[in-house]
Every structure is written in C-alpha cells, then in structure tokens.
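Bit of a strange request maybe. I'm writing a small parser for structure token strings and I need a real example to test against, not something I typed by hand. Could someone generate the tokens for this chain?
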Amino acid sequence: MTDIPADLRMAFDAYERALMDDDLDALDAAFAPGAATLRGDGAGLLVGHDEISAFRGFRGGVPARVIESVEYRPLGDGIALLVSVSRFVAGGRGLQTQVWQLVDGRWLITAAHVTPRSAAFDRAVWRTVGDPLYQGAWEGPLAGLTVAVKDLFAVKGYRIGAGNPAYLDSARAETTSAPAVGDLLRGGASLRGIARTDEFAYSIAGDNPHYGTPPNAAVPGALPGGSSSGPASAVALGHADIALATDTAGSVRVPASYQGLWGLRTTHDLVPRQGLLPLAQTFDTVGWLTRDGATLQAVADWCLSYDGSGSTESVLGASGDDLPWRFRVPAEALAAAEPATRAAFEAFVAASALPVEEVSLGDLDGYLVPFRTVQGAEAWRNNGEWLRAHPGATGPAVAERFRAAAAVTPADEASARAALAPLREALHALVQDAVLLLPTVPGPAPARSASGADVEAVRQNTLRLTTPAAVGGLPALSVPLLRVAPASDAARTRPPAPAPVGVSLISRAGTDIALVRLGRALNALHALHARSSETDSA
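Reply from user aminoacidic:
Good idea to test on real output. This should exercise your parser:
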C-alpha cells in the first residue's frame, strides 16, 4: 500500500488538531469552498461549504479522541481517499471517511462522512435507559459516574428480565432495589439503565438470540463476551462509567478481556446477593467493570469498605495492607492459552521483570468438570420449574445447557462437590503469600461470524482458565495488559490488528481492594516499560 503523501498527512493532522481545539476558522479553511462540498453523518447530509460552516457553528466541539489508524487510497491525480478510525477518550470508536483534493496547491476536504460512536440507546445493549433512570446521591466519591446494571439485579419499579422476553413477561416489578445497586447510588453514582445479559447468565460468549449481540467496542465484528455483555459494552462504548455485573464462571472477566476493560470478580459471599436472580449460588459473585483502574478503585473502596454499606461488611482489614509483590504462574494456564497469547504474556512478564514462580494447578479439567456439574444442578433447581412451564422459550445453546443440567443426579452433584473440596484448599494455599498471574482468556474475542461449534470450543477453553477462581471463591481481577493478533484468516489481505487480552490476578479471599491496587501498580509498571521501549526504538 502506498504511503500517505507527507503534505496530505500534514493537512489531515492539522484538521484533527482544529477539531480538538474547536477552531472554527481552521475547520472552515480545511473544507473546499463552493456549493459542491459534502458532509454527512447519521443525522443527514449537508451540501455546500456555507451549510457545513453554519452547522459547525452551533454543534460545539468534538469529544476528545485519538486517531488509531488511517487508510489512504489514491483516487486520481491530486485526489485521495482517507478513512480513519478514532478512539474516544470517554469510550467507544468512530470512523471518518474523507475525500481530499489538491486545490490551488492545498489539500482540502471535498466530501466527508462521519460515523460517530454508537448511539446511547442500542437495543442489543440496553433494556431500559433513563437520563438518569435513578439519580444517585448528589455528593459522594462516585458522584458524576453512571452505572449500567446487568438485567439480573432488582431495580425498584422494574422487572428482572434475565435476557429472555418470556421471562420478562412473567416477572413482577421489584418493590426494592438490590443492595449492590443501592450502594452505588448512595456513593453518588446514577443508574443509567438496565443492560442486557446472555439468557439466564448461562453463557460467556455475549450473544443473545432474542435481542441481538451487543457490539464489541474494542474489536469491531467480534463477540463482546458474556454473560455481562450488555453492561460491559455500555461501558466500553462510553454510555456508562461502571458496569454492575455478576461472575459465576467468568462473566465479568471474559467481557473485560474481550473489550479491553478492567473487571473485578469479588470474593464469594463478600457482597451479599439479595435481589439478584441466581444461576448457581455456590459460585455466583457480584463484580464491576470500568474503563480504567482509578474508577474501579473508587468503586471498590466505596462499596467494600464504607460505614453503613447496605451490601457488605467492611473488608478494610483484609485489604488495607498491600499484597505481596510475588507472583505464581500456573503452568497449565499457559498451556491452555493460544500460542500468540502465551507469547504476549511471557513478553509482558519478562519486560516488567516480575518475580515469578511457575506452579502447578493440576489438570484444569479437574476443576471444569465438577464445576459444571454443580453449576448445572443449581441452575436447574433455580430455573427448571419455569423452563418446564415455558418450553422453547430459550435459544438453542442455552436450551442445550439446561437439558444437560436437568440430567445431573443428586449422586453426580455430591461426587462433584467432593471433588472440588481439595482443589479449593490447594488454591487457597497457593495464594496465601502470593498472587496467581495468568491470561484471563485463551485469546482475543472470536468473530461474531464464528460457527456455533467454534464458539462452543472457545467457551470450553475459556472456562478452563476462569473456573479455578470460581472454585476457590477468590477475588480475580482482569487488567487489559496484552495486545494479541487474532488467528490469521485466509480471506484477509493483510494481518488483523492486535486485540485486547486481559491478564488475571487472583489473590486470597477478602483482599479485593488491595488486589485492585496491585493491578494498578502492575499496569503503571507495564506502561513505564512500554514508554521506555518506544524511546529506545526511536
């Protein structure tokens, strides 16, 4: 591909600076004069320089963003097409398509189309949205932040939908909000809306056959990760600042990894689950997703340690001291990761000069198989009666999981619980004086076009990495530290762009706040080494 001519790139960069500065004179000068110049977006088409100039005068500035990539195609002598991808600082991505032309020796825009970040209401992301839906306290450490609540939590005056329209129709309006919702409101955060979940939270792909698949804001065309797909996408798109979610087998950590977010699965039973529709109570845990570590720290500090919390007792004693700067990497977890993910993880550890000890968790299927048995038994006890009364109400993938769950016998469940006990003890011993470090998922998010069999295979491999923390009831934090190129596709004309993959930190029970602090320190160290590498290469 031909490189962008230097003078055209200078004109493009100057136009971007003018946008960020809302410099109306410079913006007017960047568009070709006359009645033939065009500018369009989702709201319509503007024709002529004067009409474009008038629109810009009342529009106001453009939200802060950075240009991630620019594609250049020459269309003729002195005519060029530029297509650029922009990433907004507040979340989400946009696309700019521009035709530039040499006019009297200057590159000017003669036609432009802007695709902004997705609209604030996307039916695949949201079930109900308000401005806000519920106002939080006017003061508090979370004031000004907005929350997307997974459609499993009770919100006063609204029904729980569980990602299924038939279930929503059969539900009654809640008379009170879940404590986990109330804590965020008391901290000053406002409820933006109720966001979609995979059906009954019994999936980690992020797809929903009834409402559609929420977009992956980090990797266009990829699955968003579930079952907290809606709130995760809302945060990644910039529609909310905090996702209130659940994690049974990875439903916070998987979408965090797929979309480049921070995601915390809290210690099991640390945050009581009143007002939460259960999937499997032995493993169900409340969690949060954010775009940055500072916001997640504020949420954890408030919800897990403030006096009078309606959600939990203070864990400041357990989390007041920093966790040891000592890491253990499970060999089996690295073996379960895709080769490119493993290489990126090992490069990250080496570049950060972390004190790492390789340890063994044992066969990961030793966790997965009994986990799924106990999960299935509880899922059927929780939902079997409703499912028998509503045959055909769920999509095929979730229906198959419930069919398998219905077949679990009491003897199967008892045997599985017995098998999990020593595994839980072994995990607790490993994190007593160190932190487990491993890739959150095997690789980048699969494409939405992937076959059902391929998605199921990814699901099984992912659960091998996510179930140990669930079995141990331990806090687990996914930090967006890796960039990994997806597997090559023969139909592609060039390699795919690197996609986010998280690194998970797992610590002893009750150290949730300290775990977020440790993740932020690790992220800062990683950023420092990355800047040093860029300086050295320059």
